[in-house]
TrEMBL record:
It comes from the Eukaryota. It comes from Nothoprocta pentlandii. InterPro entries: ANKFN1, Ankyrin_rpt-contain_sf, FN3_dom, FN3_sf, Ig-like_fold. Residues 202-299 form the Fibronectin type-III domain. This is ANKF1 protein. GO terms for cellular component: spindle. GO terms for biological process: establishment of mitotic spindle orientation; regulation of establishment of bipolar cell polarity. Residues 1-26 are annotated as: Disordered.
Length: 690
């Protein structure tokens, strides 16, 4: 109703000067008539639009309307409308931080009417308080003036309505009177809200932690009190003195989506005290000291001066591979390759049209042997040949059993798809030894080259962690690759997976499916595994559970199905850094022959780590279905903290030494029942490198 009144007022203004017929109309009228309260406000000057394009005029009018709509929504305390406008327009388009003619911003109105939900929505969008309220006195005076002027206007309009005879002008003035009465009540409510407000209480749960050798991290929550005004910013202060005299620095946080701050550029080994205080329209509240009261920037490596394990390893391996390639470039086995035409070389940009060429060498059926299949998928679609067949090529038709070492060797080849031709040439040299192993691996490389050539792409993706076998003697090695680009390929057919599964005519019985039928039946599970194996952990410190089991030809590691590229784990905290003091405390616990820390200490960072470990161990034991009382025999790995990229780190929890790796036939009391799988150790290591 009020919005319709505003539209009626706009139409009336084109005919003659009106009075305010709605709160928003009254606000616009007040902007035009009350020059006393103009604060850096540039009014709409029609003359300034002369010579501007019509497009600019429309845009200016459009943005003014959106700004007016936001003010109206805040004044009417319409949270849904405020959120809608903040989502629809940018802060710049809404003119979010430009004061209106009354010197007010949307955030000022929200906090002085103590509307916390709207105020928080505006704060998260980047809203600020009016910069013109430099003191409590200036804000109080400004509100008193607004109330007095609105009251005066209400009295004037009341007298005019009472004294004039009923006519059209009187009806318009009655609308203006109602609007000004509403605005008068709004200003009085804002003034009362300001007068009854008090400074905020101190923030709660101020926690300090060591982030690195040169930084500390502080997190905190809002004050508990709900009676004070809305908090609009926080101040973090730090000093080397517990009295904060002299202070070393401070930072004001006005982006309140995440209440945390990292203090950087500190001196390693120096204690820093931190406190946090909150601010509202009445000023700064009392500071709250952190827990623990101070932190010393450091890293666990400083305990014994240990250098990072992987420092320079990647560069050294690249250099070694380059040297090996240089030596093999002059090998006689490369001479035939130099004379090959350019068209024989593989190219990533080559079309996939060979998939549907009648002369392609993809197989339709398996005939007792070793095969390679490449599963390319995009969303819920899978790439197939012109015969609706997943691409399959033969590796060896006389190979009745796949040695695990050959399979694990092939998984390493998957890290060098672009080097297949070079590897094939190198293996050719060694065939004179007539080694069965080398012949098998050479055939694997030949099949890979054939698959790359037929598909027209080098990267075949990730090797699934186990081959598919059937009772007919077929062995199928599966590679998986997700196609994420929107690139279209010539003559390529993407088929929905469900359609392929239902339309394929099986040539085997349900009791004894072929390897290809098994692949189609389980393809969704394999794609889910592939997607999950590429997920990354969020930054933080984790507690991992290391459990191995051995067989004759391999060692397997226990991993969760939901994240198979990571050990079974739970998150200890969001800060991945272990300080020197925390690591020293852990070393002492180990030297005291305590498998898991069991003694609380003083209110220090070490005690916080102890409490976090207690919670994490209980959660981890529940996750892997191991009774908590058996944790007394477990140990924390104390040789190092496993560091993955600086943002993720792990502490390891180990079973008793005799049970870390279960031998074949040995009773395994520490293996969970469901939700986990065991991967070959080499597969797990490759997953960590991807």
């Amino acid at each position: 109703k009020m919005t319709q009144q505003m539209r009626d007022l706009q139409l009336g203004q084109a005919r003659k000067p009106p009075g305010p017929s709605s709160p928003n109309a009254a606000k616009r009228l007040y902007r035009n008539l009350s020059g006393k309260f103009r604060v850096n406000y540039t009014s709409f000057d029609e003359g300034s639009l002369v010579g501007r394009s019509e497009k600019e005029k429309l845009r200016k009018s459009y943005l003014i309307q959106s700004n007016a709509a936001l003010f109206e929504a805040v004044e009417l305390q319409d949270l849904d409308r405020v959120q809608e406008l903040l989502k629809q327009y940018s802060p710049e388009e809404l003119d979010l931080n430009t004061p209106n003619s009354e010197g007010l911003l949307p955030l000022d109105i929200a906090i002085m009417t103590n509307n916390a939900p709207i105020a928080k929505a505006l704060l998260q969008a980047g809203a600020k308080e009016s910069p013109h309220f430099v003191s409590l006195e200036s804000r109080s005076l400004h509100l008193s003036t607004l109330v007095r002027e609105a009251e005066q206007r209400v009295n004037e309009l009341t007298a005019q309505v009472v004294n004039e005879a009923p006519n059209t002008d009187c009806s318009e003035k009655e609308k203006q009177l109602k609007a000004w009465e509403w605005r008068y009540r709004l200003y009085k409510r804002m003034k009362a809200g300001f007068e009854h407000a008090r400074v905020p209480d101190a923030p709660t749960n101020v926690h300090l932690s060591v982030a690195s050798s040169s930084s500390v991290h502080v997190t905190f929550w809002e004050p508990l009190s709900v009676n004070s005004a809305v908090v609009t910013k926080y101040k973090v202060e730090w000093s080397c003195s517990p009295t904060f005299s002299p202070p070393l620095g401070e930072a004001v946080i006005d982006k309140l989506k995440n209440l945390h701050f990292t203090i950087r550029g500190l001196v390693s080994g120096t204690a820093y005290y931190v406190q946090v205080s909150a601010y509202n329209m009445k000023g700064w509240g009392p500071p709250q000291s952190s827990v623990p009261p101070f932190a010393i920037p450091s890293n666990w490596r400083e305990y014994d001066g240990r250098a990072p394990r992987r420092r320079g390893q990647a560069e050294a391996l690249d250099q070694l591979l380059s040297q090996v390639k240089t030596v093999h470039q002059h090998c006689v086995c490369h001479e035939p390759c130099k004379n090959q035409p350019q068209s024989r070389k593989h190219s990533v940009s080559k079309s996939l049209k060979h998939l549907f060429h009648p002369g392609s060498k993809f197989l339709k059926t398996l005939k007792r042997g070793l095969y390679l299949t490449a599963v390319f998928y995009k969303d819920d679609n899978i790439l197939v040949t012109h015969e609706d067949q997943i691409p399959v090529v033969e590796i060896d038709d006389t190979y009745s059993c796949l040695l695990m070492q050959d399979f694990l060797w092939f998984t390493k080849v998957s890290c060098m798809w672009e080097e297949i031709l070079w590897l094939r040439q190198c293996v050719t040299v060694s065939q004179s030894s007539c080694s069965c192993i080398l012949q098998t691996r050479f055939k694997m490389l030949m099949a890979t080259s054939q698959m790359q050539g037929l598909l027209g792409i080098q990267d075949l993706g990730q090797v699934f962690f186990e081959p598919i076998k059937d009772k007919q003697g077929n062995i199928l090695i599966v590679t998986l690759k997700e196609v994420k680009t929107n690139q279209t390929f010539e003559s390529v057919r993407w088929v929905p997976i469900c359609k392929l599964q239902t339309s394929r005519k099986s040539v085997s019985s349900p009791e004894e499916p072929t390897a290809l039928d098994t692949l189609l039946i389980t393809v969704q599970d394999k794609l889910a595994y592939h997607r999950r194996s590429s997920h990354a952990l969020s930054p933080g410190l984790y507690l991992g559970y290391l459990k191995l089991c051995s067989a004759v030809d391999q060692i397997r590691v226990l991993v969760p199905e939901r994240l198979p590229n990571i050990l079974c784990h739970v998150k200890i905290r969001s800060n991945p850094n272990i300080s020197r003091e925390e690591w020293e405390w852990l070393q002492k616990r180990v030297s005291m022959d305590e498998p898991v820390p069991t003694e609380p200490e003083a209110d220090t960072s070490q005690n916080h780590l102890f409490q976090e470990l207690q919670v994490a161990i209980k959660e981890l034991m529940a996750l892997v279905n191991i009774p908590l009382q058996e944790a007394k025999d477990f140990r924390l790995y104390s040789q190092e903290v496993l560091d993955f990229g600086g943002q993720v780190s792990f502490l390891l929890l180990l079973p008793p030494s005799d049970d870390v790796c279960t031998a074949p036939g040995q009773n395994n009391p520490y293996t969970p029942r469901s939700g986990f799988l065991t991967l070959p150790l080499q597969i797990f290591e490759l997953g960590k490198k991807r």
